[in-house]
Amino acid sequence: SHTMSSSYQAIxxxxxxxxxxxxxxxxxxxxxxxLIHINSLSFGEKFWELVPLNTLDLAHNQLTHLSQDFSxxxxxxxxxxxxxxxxxxxxxxxxxxQNLSVLKMDHNxxxxxxxLPNESHVNWRKTLQQLSLANNKRITAVHRLDxxxxxxxxxxxxxxFTELKDEFFDGLNKLTHLNLSANHLExxxxxxxxxxxxxELDVSKNKLRNIDQEHLCGMHxxxxxxxxxxxxxxxxFHENNRSLAxxxxxxxxxxxxxxxIEHLPALTxxxxxxxxxxxxxxxxxxxxxxRRLNLNNNDLNDLPPQLGTMKQLTVLTLQGxxxxxxxxxxxxxxxxxxxxYLCKLxxxxxxxxxxxxxxxxxxCLDDARYTGKLVLANKKLxxxxxxxxxxxxxxxxxxxxxxxxxxxxxxxxQLESLVVLNVSQNQLKSIPAEIFSLQSLKELYCARNNLxxxxxxxxxxxxxxxxxxxxxxxxxxxxxxxxxxxxxxAFNKWDRFPIEVVQQCKNLEVLDLDSNxxxxxxxxxLLEYGRKLRYLILSNNNxxxxxPTLGGMTxxxxxxLQGxxxxxxxxxxxxxxxxxxxxxLQQLMPTNGVGDGRQSQxxxxxxxxxxxxxxxxxxDQLEYKIQHDQYMSSAQEYAYKKQLAVLKAKRMRLRRxxxxxxxR
Length: 664
What we know:
By secondary structure, this protein is α/β, with parallel strands linked by helices. The chain is built from 16 helices and 26 strands. The chain is 23% helix and 12% strand.
């Protein structure tokens, strides 16, 4: 009675070779026997040709249970989706495959206090890494979560939890993502403070009144905290929370600025809008990487003028506050103008500039002790800070934007853990050969100095920026840089293309030669050696022509040629983007070794029939925004991708219409 139709049988057969089966939205009330025994061999099948089922999607059905035989017949199943079914009994946890890694049971009908099986009954407690029971609406408690030692992601949002026992999270030592949002919690359990691996915590839309140090004390890696829409009045951070980068406390009852927040050196985004704050502490100005600060709809009547000195702060919103010293017209002009206005309010009798600078350096040094990152950029240093050598475990050292004339050779002998080194915008004439000893170094930034040559670099380097060194000799030996992915060599006044870089760095993806004096592009050699190149930046050089051979580099994602005196390619083609440039060059390529003049003419006619370049520019802008906007919400990303699909479809229709018109 459960034999599947021919189309279902085809899906089942396909899954036996892929190991993945999608049976979502099939209106199933119980599992078909063919699915339960899918791993059994049929006549003529060879076991070495089949792949055991490892991923099964049963979402959006009417299932109330699985089967007693399901577990024993699916020992290799790792991922199981049961969202949007009619599961209401906890007995289903005894029917689950024994080696599950991912289990999603969102939007079912589970209710009351769930009692999970113990280890003597099920093995999946040892293997499960992701568990989601979100939006079951009526779950009030979950017992025996403890000792699930491999659990990394836990989602209990959208239920009826009013309280979690203090030992609730005991044993969940590998938990990295925890979602408790949209419940009725009035306090957090003490054991939550022991989650040392936790990276993201969402407790929004509850009834929490306080978040204290005891709740956060063990969270060394916590980077994201969302506590919007609670009843919070007090928040106090712990000194261990130095990895926190984004905090959202909007729509609460906070009347005192979160305590110890100045000790969060990694914080880039802070949202405390729609609260009851009447004062912003001066200490907030010590947060030197803060980029976004939302203070909308509080009770602020003044601001510390030192907010204007926060260089990284690019978004500061203050609407809905009864500010007295700041006119509405200033607020409406934007963050840059507001910061300039605040700087004018700083009293001239304040601490001298040198003392302020020393305070800033002391803060950076204190920060380095905990983060392993020493950032002394733009501190007016006239020599290398020897104090950096007292931090042998440093992973990041940034002394850019100073006036340092040389680097001590012993610098690199003592900083063996260095991963990122930024010495850009100084007065360096050389880099010591001892840099080769930094075998962990991945990123080296030495732009805008007076370098004459580059030393032999460690093979671990992935990003090199040596732009803006006008007297820099072209590197001849780079074969050791087997890991190099990006080479930024702009503004060096080279009159020859450094093809050696492409030949020797086999994994090079980005080559930036902007604003040099290059005249000839070695297309044949690029085609042969540049198989992994994705970005080739040649704008603002002296290139007058390109060989059509370059059109064979179809793998290029971006080819920039603006600002060259090119005579063989029209400006409109260059402005249309990489795809159009490559297509045009391909049309100019000779057939059977003999050039065809008519091809060039057809190329111009074909391009003339293309859709407007504004459409391509709009598509490029959207694609760039989707890939690079780190503050974009999921809803915004979805909307942009939808808009992008519409624009691409429009461009395709226009091109087809143009091709049909050309044929006529």
